[in-house]
């Protein structure tokens, strides 16, 4: 049986597939047309966020049995199309939780202390100590939208920094939140109280442009916003307007609605805008975890007929 790998995973995972007797075809950077051709004869496909498995691509598969995501988000897979064809879809969410949470904290520090801007200024030969006055995190209120795996690790680390943590998550009970030291609040209360807001929800119909002009209007003056979850959860033009009028003092995005964003994207021109190219899970540790997990899951399914998520 053949497994097509269309986004890079570490060699440790490829080894597991090969040792189990599976043929592995590694083909990254495929165009949609090339992907349709390559998927035709595959029994399994392993992807990260770069590969878009649309209904059209999935329809082109003639013997595909499993779609496996080396990571968490499944927003790049048309789940209905996979379901129609009886294709099993699996992910391995735990492996990059800590890395995504740590990246969120890095973004929070970068925003609070203007680290990227100050470094750019110093490297350009300037010494601008007054311009880059920062803010402390201790005592500030962090608002977490989505208190799942990543959101709860962020909460734990923020409590260690002596921040107050409030969260909005309709699927978490106040008791569960309070055990984590977090106060569960409504979305409007979170907007009203948070000095810093961070997003950790999946991208779905319900969360598309969850953060929009109306939400910015309800936030505190000078709020900081972080999105290390998924592009599309924040309306980027509304964010641009909110930064221009000073409502949002700084924003950090690891993810964009279109990746990579166009080079003339207005946010990229803003000085108080910090960004990274979807690096939340890009650590050696997380990539090793997900490569091992995804490969083992695919072998378990294709070779042993066992379905499980890590
Ligand atoms: P998770 O499923 O453990 O947590 C998501 C939480 O969001 C759940 O608790 C759920 O109840 C909550 N939720 C769902 N809908 C909501 C809504 N409308 N409002 C508020 N909360 C809602 O997922 P996770 O492992 O914490 O990952 C979260 C997301 O982070 C993933 O879906 C993925 O898109 C993204 N992610 C990004 C990176 C990166 O590289 N930047 C890495 C890993 C994950
Ligand atoms: C994820 O959802 O796990 C992230 O997008 C990480 C990634 O695959 O880069």
UniProtKB/TrEMBL annotation:
Q: Does the keyword Transmembrane helix apply?
A: no
**According to the lineage, what is the superkingdom?**
Bacteria
Group of enzyme by EC:
oxidoreductase
What reaction does this catalyse? Answer: (2R)-3-phosphoglycerate + NAD(+) = 3-phosphooxypyruvate + NADH + H(+); (R)-2-hydroxyglutarate + NAD(+) = 2-oxoglutarate + NADH + H(+)
Q: Name one GO molecular function term.
A: phosphoglycerate dehydrogenase activity
Please give a single GO biological process term from the UniProt record.
L-serine biosynthetic process
* Record-listed E.C. numbers: 1.1.1.95
Family stated for the protein in its record: Belongs to the D-isomer specific 2-hydroxyacid dehydrogenase family.
Q: What does this protein do?
A: Catalyzes the reversible oxidation of 3-phospho-D-glycerate to 3-phosphonooxypyruvate, the first step of the phosphorylated L-serine biosynthesis pathway. Also catalyzes the reversible oxidation of 2-hydroxyglutarate to 2-oxoglutarate.
> What's the name of the protein?
D-3-phosphoglycerate dehydrogenase
Q: Which organism is it from?
A: Thermosulfurimonas dismutans
Which portion of the entire protein is included?
1 to 310 of 526
